[in-house]
Design brief:
about 290 residues; alpha/beta; single chain; nine-stranded mixed beta sheet
């Protein structure tokens, strides 16, 4: 399928959206082309701006080596369509998007472009949800793109859900994370990622080191925040979500430690996704 017309996130004018959705190529603020898809809420009569105004839009960010075409992300996105319109996209360096992955740094601009697109399509309420690397990115996005002084088509989010995210950088305490660091930092690992996983990784180290998730979390309030983590996560043990929760505002943050849950979108059961959708509905109710 063609990725569709290119959309400048700075514009409020966008192509029309049908009831079956729309594909687009978004330009980030730093000039990277991002493949994105929009699906209206299930049962919506059409994708018009009038219909979108009172409908929540959920921007869903995948984990490292994922993309909008991966079955796990498509399954998760479909689970939310009873409650919201859904925007999915492939991070830079992933799938058909341009650029190279910076493993959580510049990806903030990818989320910002997707949120701007959702608002340009007419949605007054936009939430972000991220898995694993995407979970760290939506935390940092919410901290760096706050609602203050931003207009209607701005990049701020109205609620954040972070699933299976790390709290801090450079963690190597599990075998899974040691393998990931090999893939990111070694030339052979980057070759394997590019050829086998369709993930193109930037070869240069961070400079400067970006704001960490745990440093970002205190900056998110008063935006509602949900942290979700499994007690069988093979990448990040439970000290990561607990550290994030301790840094967050207790008035606006909830923490769910899920028994038996593994890691990110691949392990998220329908029941968990449904409860997350319910949480979003409670925090961002339909306008009366």
């Amino acid at each position: 399928m063609s990725p569709g017309p290119e959309v400048d996130p700075g514009r409020s004018r966008v192509p029309s959206v049908t009831s079956r959705g729309h594909r687009a190529s978004l330009l980030t603020a730093d000039g990277v082309r991002i493949e994105a898809a929009y699906a209206p809420r299930a049962g919506a009569a059409d994708g018009s701006r009038a219909g979108a105004a009172d409908t929540l839009a959920l921007v869903v960010a995948h984990g490292f080596t994922g993309s909008l075409e991966r079955p796990a992300l498509r399954r998760a996105a479909a689970a939310f369509r009873d409650r919201a319109a859904v925007v999915t996209f492939s991070f830079r360096g992933h799938g058909r998007s341009g650029g190279r992955s910076t493993v959580g740094d510049r990806e903030v601009e990818d989320v910002a472009a997707a949120v701007r697109w959702a608002r340009a399509l007419g949605h007054r309420r936009v939430a972000t949800l991220g898995f694993s690397m995407g979970g760290s990115v939506v935390l940092r996005h919410a901290a760096l793109h706050g609602p203050a002084h931003e207009g209607r088509t701005a990049a701020h989010t109205d609620a954040v859900v972070s699933v299976s995210a790390p709290a801090r950088w450079y963690y190597r305490g599990t075998a899974s994370m040691r393998r990931l660091h090999w893939a990111v930092t070694r030339p052979t690992g980057r070759l394997v990622s590019r050829v086998g996983l369709r993930t193109r990784i930037h070869p240069e180290d961070w400079d400067p080191v970006p704001l960490s998730p745990v440093a970002a979390v205190p900056l998110i309030a008063p935006v509602p925040l949900l942290l979700v983590h499994g007690d069988r996560d093979p990448y990040f043990p439970l000290d990561h979500p607990r550290m994030l929760y301790a840094a967050a505002s207790p008035a606006t943050c909830d923490l769910w430690l899920e028994p038996g849950f593994g890691h990110a979108e691949n392990a998220a059961a329908p029941e968990l996704l449904d409860r997350i959708g319910g949480w979003l509905g409670e925090r961002l109710p339909m306008p009366e």
